[in-house]
Amino acid sequence: MRYLPLTKDEQQEMLASLGLEKIEDLFQDIPAEAMFQGDLDVPGPLSEAELVRHFRELAGKNKDATQLVSFLGAGAYDHLIPSIIKHIVGRGEFLTAYTPYQPEITQGVLQSIFEYQTMICELTGMEASNASMYDGASALAEACLMACAATKRELVILPATLHPEWQAVVRTYLENQDVSIVFMPQHAETGTVDLDRLADLPWAEAACVVVQQPNFFGLLEDVAALKARIHEAKGLLVMAVDPISLSLLKSPGELGADIVVGDGQSLGQAMGYGGPAFGFFATTDKLIRRMPGRVVGETVDAEGKRAFVLTLQTREQHIRREKATSNICSNQALNALAATIYLSVLGKQGFRDVGYQCLQKASYMKQRLLEIPGLSSPFSAPTFREFAVRGQVDWVEINKRLLDHGFLGGLPLARFGHPDLVLFSVTEARTKQEIDDFVSTLRGLIQ
Amino acid sequence: MTLRADVPLIFERSTPGRRGYRLPELDVPETPLEELIPQEYLRTEPPALPEVSELEVVRHYTQLSRRNHGVDVGFYPLGSCTMKYNPRVHEDLVSLPGLSAIHPYQPEETVQGALELIYNLSEHLAAIAGLAKTSLQPAAGAHGELSGLMVIKAYHNHRGEGHRTEMLVPDSAHGTNPASCAMVGYKVVEVPSNERGGVDVEALKKLVGPNTAGLMLTNPNTLGLFDENICQIAQIVHEAGGLLYYDGANANAIMGVVRPGDTGFDVVHFNLHKTFSTPHGGGGPGAGPIVVSEKLAPFLPGPVVQKDGDQFRLVMPEHSVGRVRSFYGNFLVYAKAYAYILSHGPQGLREVSATAVLNANYVMNKLKDVFELPYERICMHEFVLSGSHLKKYGVRTLDLAKRLSDYGFHAPTVYFPLIVDEAIMIEPTETEAKSTLDEFIEVMRQIAEEAKENPEMLTSAPHNTPVKRVDEARAARHPVLRWKPEASGEQ
């Protein structure tokens, strides 16, 4: 086989050194009734050339964002990805390393994680970050569990404006630990959390209140009122944020958040049909020992030189076992590295430019779309990179016809219970020309 | 520069006003920022990201990479982690825009190739596990455990047996097993090992009962030993009404040799970043799909892919535990595992496992006269030595691990499993040449000799690495988890 280097002679020599004759003798501890007879029902073997052909065929059955102009978002975004990212994360020293258990020979990964943690702290305005989570949704679920552990309460308040898939993930995690969920309703006009209907919620029992910023509909939530409520009740403020929006928006730290999570896909990660990207997780100094996941800290080596190491490990499963803060160990380190490179090469100004361009382009497209008779804006709150549009049309059908024109339209929200709404996302990767063409095509299809 | 020189943090290379990547000019008419977003929502200070050129970024991370050990750099016998070669062609395959640049909410008719890949891989993993249905949602091994336990819990609840909340876990198990149990509210009941390193069957009989939800087992276990009583163990747990969970961390030993489903397991998770060669990336992304029997299939986390005629579509299983993450798992990771299976085929996969087992036994046999071997049996893909005899020279397993770095080898897994004193867990994998194994054997023997002759050489190791021994205690006592500008003058 391609990746098996032993020659027949070597194999025989090695068997002989063990006093064995044939390879089957190695399996003598396996009882006969447990042995599998015959061949596994899998195809192959394929040569490299055949494998490449097969993958090209599969990939060729998909339509991708290099062929289509995409206005899809809702958790995965078509941002520009600087070329250097793939070249650096493709280096074998990063790509083929395990979790950095031996710090003396894994300073590269450890230092890059330390830089990543610093960048996440800068973006979120928080004091500490872990090394990454699986994705934003599971990071939010873990944040809710952490809030429960920190407050010794078993109820969380979620906004109805939270991404429905994130709601689902949080529900899966929480119901397995018998934690209750109460929802804050959406205000019909603003589209954000209904601040007039907070009084009836069980604040005194709540471990935390969650705010997604911007929310699922792309709208900016007013965090201050929620922060006041939950802190008055001695619960925690958990924010789920879009990292690109943090280039312009006040940081969650400044808003008084206790735990901040988010999905990092928009920071230099391929859409990849939804994965892998990464989740980020940040909190206050006070709560660091309750944080899930790997954390890297600064220290010194035997000669007093600066060095980095996995730390606060007494929170973790390999030490605490069933008393660990979480079971997470492998996370999304290489994706976090990609984000670190992304934020480095964009830099202070470039990162702000991304956020600013998303905002301006989305705003431009929103104005243009609302000029189309029959389309209206369903909500009044300000938006960032995404916005919903209302129109009494079959958006699924419209999208099919848009595909014929080379466009990937917005996400029809019928599947999430909003039959007239469609959610558009506009990143810095879209051009004015693409936006104008899309608007005129859509106008033609609707009229 | 030499590898010993300190590499500054990327922040410390920053020069105000310097730019790396540039966006195209903004080409739409601009609206004043304050008209789009209320002033009180806007931040006054931008995040203090570095200001560096593209070349500075490339050099910085290239320098960091040179301070890192990977499979591509050298031998990496880290037990239970299966650090095998990661075929480079897989990176090309998942870079095809038809896979990397597709959006998870595209209409299904525009992603039939992706859905076909998911469907095929699900089928192949089921074939390897000897079970019925797969969910590719879990993002890592521990996530697979959590998902698998949720499935078990949902199954019991569905049958009105919600009182089954005790999960049996051997004392040799990975720490994730009990930690995952806690995350579904299960009580962990520890099962002792017998004198051959397997599950103590008599003890197990006494521990099962009406509240047993199941047993989590790694087989071969963390000692690298195949549990000879597996069929009896399965019978005991099943007769008590429990289910069997297979921790697939060690599945590299059994492909095409044993199908867990045939030996009574109801749920299996595979670590695709171990057995199926997707790169570990310095700690992820991995993929930890679970495969279950027919009766558990309705409870799988979703969505999963179903084939209707020649069309593929996403569906939620009937009684699904729900979503365990957004979208469809780590797609570009498990796509590499799919490539791995196709490259090998049925005989190839069996040959992978057989060779992994041969390599492990070869190394074990050549080291057992200089290190203690607590369980003298034929091992599977890995084995566990004890360094306890080195204590008399003032040397510990940790010192041996550090000394190995000086010779260009990554250390084995150390101090695990917990049931072996000063444990040294070695997993060579099948992709290493005999010459590499011989070099490793030679170095291990030499270090054992050094421990006697010159123990200080070990206790002060490593000597030839980018940094000397790292003070872990200090990091935990005074956590410094981020860089701050004012602290930069200290260096």
Would you summarize the structure shown here?
The complex is a heterodimer of chains A (about 450) and B (about 500). By secondary structure, chain A is an alpha/beta fold.
Low-confidence stretches of chain A: none
CATH architecture of the largest domain in chain B: 3-Layer(aba) Sandwich
Topology order of chain B in helix (H) and strand (E) letters = HHHHHEHEHEHEHEEEEEHEHEEHHH
| Major sheet characteristics of chain A | 7 strands, mixed
Task: Outline the biggest β-sheet of chain B.
Answer: 7 strands, mixed
Shape of chain A: globular
What's the CATH H-level homologous superfamily of the largest domain in chain A?
Type I PLP-dependent aspartate aminotransferase-like (Major domain)
Which value, in Å, is the CA radius of gyration of chain B? 25 Å
Care to count the β-strands of chain A?
14
**Shape of chain B from CA axes?**
globular
CATH superfamily of the largest domain in chain B: Type I PLP-dependent aspartate aminotransferase-like (Major domain)
- End-to-end distance of chain A: 61 Å
Q: Could you state the order of secondary-structure elements of chain A as H and E?
A: HHEHHHEHEHEEHEHEEEEHHEHEEEH
Biggest interface goes to:
A-B, 206 and 197 residues
Question: What's the tally of helices of chain A?
Answer: 13
Estimated structural class of chain B: alpha/beta
Query: How much strand content do the residues of chain B show?
Result: 5-15%
CATH top level of the largest domain in chain B is Alpha Beta
Average pLDDT over all residues of chain A: 97
The CATH topology assignment of the largest domain in chain B is Aspartate Aminotransferase, domain 2
CATH topology of the largest domain in chain A: Aspartate Aminotransferase, domain 2
